Please model this.
Amino acid sequence: MSRDSDVIIIGSGIGGATLASALAPSGARILILERGEHLADTPEARDDVAIFERGFYRSDEEWIGSDGRKFLPGNYYYVGGNSKFYGAVMYRYRVEDFRARPHLQGTSPGWDMSYDDMEPWYARAEALFKVRGATGQDPTEPPRSGPFPFPAVPDEPALQRVRERLKRAGVHPASLPLAIDIDAWLKRGRTGWDAFPNTGGAGKIDAEVGPLADALKHPNVRLMTGAQVVRLETGADGHEVVAAVLRRNGREERLTARHFAVAAGAVQSAALLLRSANAAHPTGLGNRSDQLGRNFMNHNTSAMITLNPFLRNDSVYQKTLFFNDFYNDDPQVHAPLGNVQLLGRITGNILKAQVPAMPRFLARLMADRAFGWFLTSEDLPNPNSRVLVRGEDIVMDWQRSNMDAHHLLIKRTRQVMKRAGFPVVMVRIFGNKTTSHQCGTARLGTDPRASVVDLDCRSHDIPNLWITDASVLPTSAAVNPALTIAALALKAGEAMRQLDAQL
Model:
């Protein structure tokens, strides 16, 4: 049978772009379908007012929350996906994150594979994204087969002082693993990179600048933009996907391939597969387990601002430190609490955008002494926390979990910051319609009755269907998921090539 492509990849974010990079050297005909377009290189890319106050890049797409009301989820639809705006943090999950373990309010089920199984793929993903970091600083650091590809991004002078204060306060500040070329980033503009997109082709290594650019160097790889896939079609027996149906330029197109990889993000991938239900798969493609769309997880997150009137923050990018002293075990309750890391530099304009009633001069005065932190705790999988579709609408019924641990993480971090000499500590807990770090809607596992894909991200039910984004994560851990997504996509690419001699 003549087909349009050998592999169709739906989505150009970290999972899709990394899979394309893994498959590109095979010579197979690879087509990447992206509903968005390339981000134009305009001044707004480094304009904090445009991004944070005016919402210049924000999508107007609405989802329906568990309360029945529509909201703006904050997803981005561009080449490179949400990674265009990510903070470039590339953590490995810790050894303990792959194991079943109790939390204050429930149990994390662990994975059907170990950290040792993932370590080689983590190393390859770090090389692909040119990750900068340092070893020997974090007590929760997992074993490594080699050093980071590049040395850590240096602390600015203000952050050097904060690092020393944290050490004296009794914790172990460590350098964030970052996919950033710091010199190239600052050459184009002196800003942080957290929420600022890379539109110049150098600096922040997102999905477009990193693996997608690598893949597109090969003549057998094509990218089609403005192509929103609305459903996948199977043959009459439902045994394989035969076509992707997409909307482009106001009309529908139908494209065929031997393999189909869905990498549209944990919510959109689940929605696409649910909408693709047919007679052979009445509850959605690959959903014999009834787990598709279930176990939706977000991290429990907060922003913390610490101030010392005698400690000026003159940093530009700020985002270099984290500490995990409460990650695996709190000394009093003996349960995991989570991760604490720096946010990108909070400017007066960013603070004003978050507190519109605050006069701009006051916001700038506060920002001059403020250090911003991002606190993350694990959200536990729950089959009743799920993504549903209702016609054209997406319903996100997030059943939040494990908030006692997050409140305790806030308390412990506040105590640390007070000991570190920050008399003013302010916290904002993000609500249940904040959709950063979405994951879990098509979990991987060895049991087809309890998971959607196998350990290579291949559908248990449909042999030529793969899912290579955060959907497959069985647990959310309490660190940024980008590197784990990339590692799993590399693993899936190798499995696909071993399965199909033509790849």
